[in-house]
From TrEMBL:
Belongs to the gluconeogenesis factor family. Keywords: Cytoplasm, Transferase. It comes from Weissella cibaria. GO terms for molecular function: LPPG:FO 2-phospho-L-lactate transferase activity. This is Putative gluconeogenesis factor. It is found in: Cytoplasm. Required for morphogenesis under gluconeogenic growth conditions. HAMAP family: Gluconeogen_factor. GO terms for biological process: regulation of cell shape. InterPro entries: CofD, CofD-like_dom_sf, Gluconeogen_factor. It comes from the Bacteria.
Length: 334
């Protein structure tokens, strides 16, 4: 850690999200002396995670697996085994990641996914806390701008239609109970110094966590600095033509209050001829950069060239984002 980011106390940082963006930020923050907690969406229903979710009635393990892999202090050779994905020719095990199967086994052994994840985190020497946002799989629902609705994260994503609003329900909704986060999740939010939202798919990775009612209430009540990491690219259907401020407005509107205190925004420009649009067919174009509009929404813009160009796509540089998060943690002005 550089002298510029040294803090007198160990900041408690909660990173809420899912998908591929969350591990990138956690990897950057892992370099600092922080008390890290990852709160992870459980509304995914595609791929290996979706198959295990359907067969075993468990929360989807994929995002949990990726976070554990990033925060684990085990040798890389073991992490590579944990992350190994069976080939598509392997019939029954086709496309399953070994770590997903291990998480499923731990959930069954402990008869509770939350306890199973905590036990596995100890075995994997995870540096921080890994909390599924709910003990049960959640179903994501969306209303689109044309008035139609769909249920299921994979179907909503595949529709490529402009989303107006989303909500979540327990997979077993026969009791008419609402989704609830475990007390550990709520206490982490209430006791945090900084809460990080994103980056990731706004309506299918970030907001599903915030639609769990006691999570939304905890966000309103916490004294932590709430930071949103603005996406670099828009997503077809989900956020076409969205600016940084549009993302911010969607978060505040869904939570029911202006909960975001700062927005980390990218100033780097994605070269027009760099993106492989066939490979990254979910992205549309670069998010519009508008710090003044963000200020009008009551949040402080925190600017930086966050761009990392790799694999013919545009991604966040996790190290730079982590530096900015640590600056916010130490700033008396936010």
């Amino acid at each position: 850690m550089t002298e510029a980011f040294k803090v007198t106390t160990r900041p408690k940082i909660v990173v809420i999200g899912g998908g591929s963006g969350q591990p990138v930020i956690l990897r950057g923050l892992k370099q600092y002396d922080t008390d890290l907690t990852a709160v992870i969406t459980v509304a995914d229903d595609g791929g290996s995670s979706g198959t295990l979710r359907d067969y075993l009635n468990m929360v989807p393990p994929g995002d949990i697996r990726n976070v554990m892999a990033v925060l684990s202090s085990l040798p890389q050779e073991i992490i590579d085994i944990f992350q190994y994905r069976f080939r598509k020719e392997d019939e029954m095990l086709a496309n399953h990641a070994l770590g997903n199967l291990i998480i499923a086994a731990m959930a069954e052994k402990e008869r509770d996914i939350f306890t199973g994840v905590q036990t596995l985190a100890k075995v994997m020497d995870v540096q921080g806390h890994v909390y599924p946002v709910a003990d049960e799989p959640l179903v994501l629902h969306a209303t689109f701008s044309d008035g139609t609705t769909l249920s299921g994260e994979a179907e909503i994503t595949a529709a490529h239609k402009r989303i107006d609003s989303i909500w979540v329900t327990p997979q077993d909704d026969s009791t008419n109970e609402v989704a609830q986060a475990p007390s550990e999740v709520i206490n982490a939010i209430l006791n945090a110094d900084v809460i990080v939202l994103g980056p990731g798919s706004l309506f299918t990775s970030v907001l599903p966590n915030l639609m769990v009612p006691n999570v939304a209430e905890a966000l309103k009540a916490t004294r932590a600095k709430v930071v949103y990491i603005a996406n670099i690219m828009t997503q077809k259907g989900e956020t076409d033509d969205f600016s940084d401020a549009d993302h911010l407005r969607a978060i505040n509107r869904h939570v029911g209050d202006n909960v975001v205190d700062a927005v980390i925004m990218n100033t780097g420009v994605v070269p027009e001829d760099y993106i492989d649009w066939k490979k990254w067919n979910e992205v549309s174009h670069q998010v519009t950069f508008d710090p003044e509009e963000v200020r009008q929404e009551g949040a402080v813009p925190v600017l930086g060239d966050l761009l990392e160009l790799r694999d013919d796509g545009a991604f966040h540089n996790g190290d730079i984002v982590a530096q900015l998060i640590m600056q916010i943690a130490n700033s008396p002005e936010i």
